[in-house]
Design goal:
two-stranded antiparallel ribbon; 11 helices
């Protein structure tokens, strides 16, 4: 990392832990026949991609779920609970690591997310960690649903690079998704695919 001056972090399963088994069970309980085809790390129904780009509202997202289940009686709370079952929390030490990196690198967050998840993890950060949001941990945060773009499309990476005058060759991107890593690499960024059981803490311990 000798020539690294900037670090762009993904959020889910890099900083904030996700559990796709809990997600699978939650969608099954709601009535989804094939939860892995509906939403998993590898495959997603188009509604999730649209929601992550802010192309559909929360109400439209929930109505879509009611529609595919043919269950108009499902409440907003039931749908949100199933959707948020994926979100586990931030491992001890992750926030401290990010704060320790901030004086040494320009650090950024770039997350594919949506307004329901955003509200959930923001509330979690306030209640469990006493911080108003991720803005205190990075120079700047980027959320796909606010940008109208999502990874792995090149334009979302280019926006972060351009707005902050970052040289790709001096910028490390850390993510848990191979398509996102491949897209960043094509733009000339340094990349690292984080895969369990490795954590960002073990990565930086190993790489100084």
């Amino acid at each position: 990392m000798d020539n690294t001056k900037n670090i762009i972090f993904d959020y889910g399963n890099v900083i904030f832990s996700l559990d796709f088994n809990k997600s699978r069970q939650a969608w099954t309980d709601l009535g989804i026949a094939d939860p892995d085809a509906f939403y998993s790390h590898q495959t997603q129904d188009k509604i999730f991609r649209d929601f992550e780009q802010g192309l559909v509202s929360e109400a439209e997202f929930r109505d879509y779920i009611r529609g595919i289940l043919n269950n108009p009686q499902l409440s907003d709370e039931q749908i949100d609970a199933a959707w948020n079952a994926l979100l586990i929390g931030v491992a001890p030490g992750n926030h401290e690591l990010l704060l320790s990196l901030k004086p040494r690198y320009r650090t950024f967050l770039l997350s594919n997310t949506n307004s329901i998840h955003y509200n959930h993890f923001t509330d979690y950060l306030k209640k469990e960690h006493g911080i108003a949001g991720n803005e205190t941990l990075f120079e700047k945060v980027y959320y796909s649903h606010e940008m109208g773009k999502r990874k792995p499309n090149a334009d979302i990476f280019q926006q972060v690079l351009d707005e902050n005058n970052l040289k790709p060759s001096e910028t490390l991107f850390i993510d848990d998704s191979q398509p996102n890593i491949s897209a960043a690499k094509k733009l000339g960024l340094q990349t690292y695919l984080l895969t369990a059981p490795e954590t960002i803490q073990s990565f930086f311990e190993a790489n100084g």
